[in-house]
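Quick one before lunch.
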Amino acid sequence: MAEAVSVSNGAADRKDRPGDLARAALSASGGPVRISILGATGSIGKSTLDLVGHHPEKFDVVALTAQCNARRLAELAITHRAKIAVIGEEAHYDELKSLLSGTGIRAAAGAAAIEAAALEPADCVMAAIVGAAGLRPTFAAARQGSRVALANKECLVCAGDIFLREVEQHGAELLPVDSEHSAAFQSIGQTPGRSIEKIILTASGGPFRTFDKERLSRVTPEEALKHPNWSMGAKVTIDSATLMNKGLELIEAFHLFPVGAHQLEAIVHPQSVVHCLVMLEDGSVMAQLSQPDMRTPIALALAWPERLATPVSRLDLVTLGSLSFEAPDLDRFPALGTAIEALRRGGAAPAVLNAANEIAVTAFLERRIGFLEIASTVASCLEKAEAGGLFNGVDTLDDVLAVDGEARNMARMMLPG
Ligand code: NAD
Ligand code: MG
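Model of the magnesium ion complex:
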């Protein structure tokens, strides 16, 4: 572990955050949990609804949202007897309305309607919109004041302190959904923050773990979308292949747990069975193990402090035989190093990192740039943003969204097409 990539001590260090995220039982009454799902048609949305479908007596679905697939959204809303279905793209409103006619399910459309859905009274909101597009709706979920099951990592990456303030001000409860952070949350338990020496997030290494740079320069979007262990949406799958995902997750962990940036590390673990390791001052290392299936961390976020039975296949360590770990190679996967630098810089740097990465990943998926240019575009954009003074003065969500917009324009101008 000595060779694991760690975040060097920097301006971002603070140890004053509380260690316990969730405070109370979700459904104190013992009745069904009222749940809304933002991003219901995505990979996390699908896994969440799979669990809801396994325990129909335990959940009442309030609102489901999606961006453009009205047909799928209507099917899900009808199957799970939702009260409200919201489509982001207004052009699909008529289709959604007609698909839901006679069902009693209310249809709505547009970005403001998605935020309104997040504010509908519910016990739990699953925030699973991908990208910075999820910021406003996830903030709305926090303002609603109940549990936010947080899959949208971009919210903490781009606006960590501002989002956590919002959660606190509105008495909301934050439960991490990202598997590594769910594992850290469980491994930390009641341990006081001062006893934690290190939090080590594991990364699968993605489909190109063993490729040299020459091979990396030729990989296609199809190859990059074939993750060896996890089934996820396109954006997070590409981020896993570049290791940017692990960088975003280090920033996410910095905001969630009571450690300084220098106490966060990333190591490669190709089997994706150990999701996180928490090293304590007495030499103990706490870890959480499970199959690489998001239904396990989602179940925890929905049921904590209780547990929810899942149909996930059980871990069989004898069949697995061995677990291996190695240091990430920042020369072949520089996106991780760039993300660590953005965490060290703090301020708006992580928001710039995320925006540039979203633009570069789209360009790669559209075959306008090669795989290695994702990381180089993000690094150039960060340099340019710093030189232009874009890292300073982000105090509100609007400030963050303004930086996000500027960084996107900057990245677009660097790319062909
Ligand atoms: P996905 O692409 O499969 O689904 C995204 C969902 O968001 C869809 O329902 C889509 O309709 C909706 N959406 C997209 N753009 C939108 C917009 N502009 N406005 C409103 N809604 C929009 O993504 P995913 O893989 O489910 O990931 C969702 C989030 O969870 C991401 O932040 C990702 O990093 C995080 N996450 C995912 C996984 C995973 O296994 N998929 C694991 C950990 C964390
Ligand atoms: Mg993860």
